[in-house]
């Protein structure tokens, strides 16, 4: 991500923090480059199991030019798709967890690589999010591919799941 893009993404993400300046300092001081941010203000997060999440991202990248930001955490366990606020309250899906209003998630510093929680698709600062109906379509296609043994395109490869503090299953 270009330096300007990272700075723009940093501002967009930090804007949801109770104290955006403190959030920026936390990112800088934390050796892992992470901060806790509240979901439900500018975005919710739909958290999918690793295999389904990676396959869904593969389908999604074929359907749209650029999906919204996608987080991954340790061990390829889960991927988290940033979607419009309020989505989690309406989402029904077995095995899909959600982080919306009242929950906090671990968010890595944008534009910085590292182990642990990371961006698979980094935010660009524009506020672009994944459209829930398109995400649902991609999930159905990915699930059908997994059930049929065709595992999607693998375009999401290497995801590491999403750490979602207080995430609830929907």
Low-confidence stretches: 152-170
How many DSSP E strands? 9
- Written as H for each helix and E for each strand, in order along the chain, the element string is HHEEHEEHEEEHEE
Distance between the termini: 33 Å
How much of the sequence lies in strands comes to 15-25%
Main β sheet profile: 6 strands, antiparallel
What is the compact description of this entry?
The chain has five helices and nine strands. The chain has 170 residues and is of the alpha+beta class.
Structural topology:
Layout (H helix, E strand, L loop, with lengths): L2 H12 L5 H10 L4 E5 L5 E6 H14 L6 E3 L5 E6 L3 H4 L6 E3 L4 E5 L9 E4 L10 H17 L15 E2 L2 E2 L1
Helix pairs in contact: 3-5
What keyword list fits this structure?
170 residues, alpha+beta, six-stranded antiparallel sheet, three-stranded antiparallel sheet, 9 strands
What does this structure look like?
The protein is globular. Helix 3 crosses helix 5 (132-148). The protein is built from 5 helices and 9 strands. It has helices at 3-14, 20-29, 50-63, 87-90, 132-148; strands at residues 34-38, 44-49, 70-72, 78-83, 97-99, 104-108, 118-121, 164-165, 168-169. By secondary structure, the protein is an alpha+beta fold. The strands form 2 sheets. Strands 7-3-4-2-5-9 form a 6-stranded antiparallel β-sheet.
